[in-house]
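User: I'm preparing a small set of examples for a lab meeting where we compare how different chains pack in three dimensions. I only have the primary sequence for this one, and I'd like the structure in token form so I can line it up with the others. Please keep the answer compact; I'll paste it straight into my notes.
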Amino acid sequence: MTGAVAGPDGLLRCPWALGTPDYVVYHDTEWGRPVTDVAGLYERLTLEAFQSGLSWLTILRKRENFRRAFAGFDPVAVAGFDEGDVERLLGDAGIVRNRAKIEAAVGNARVVAELGQGFADLVLAHRVPDRPRPAADAVPATTPESVALSKALRRAGLRFVGPVTAYALMQAVGLVDDHVQGCWVPPLAPAGVTDR
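Assistant: Understood. Below is the structure token output for the 196-residue chain.
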């Protein structure tokens, strides 16, 4: 399979998006669309880290619970979480209850809150400009750019940010356009172009 596949409505989409209605909505309205604000980037990074080893559908279906549990992904608020909050989160069946991931999310919030706009600048500096859309069977799990982003995030003090997680973040927030050939979602604007 080299390109997009027709969904029930006739629109051509990335093949992964046709698995469930949840995926269709996420694909059509959010995945690969630019996210540039600090809180939005912190949310996507946190969710991608929680997804590690799990189905994205699990995270997607728990997303509102994650938002509630993590103070709307306000990094300043989450940076103030203490051991009592970690224990509260470990008891919250609405999210993924993994101590290492919860502690990383809180620790990462502290780094993000300290960096402020510098966090967004760090992430957004890793945009892959003007790359052709891939074939459906050629979407990578990592790239040299995701390895570089992972290293930069780790140097800044963030955890659970390996190259695969970094690449998933890049895909989710529009740093790379991995909608496959023929997908109906409009391509990203070329580097340097903000309105299309």
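A couple of notes for your slides: The beta strands are 5-6, 12-13. The longest strand covers residues 5-6.

User: Perfect, thanks.
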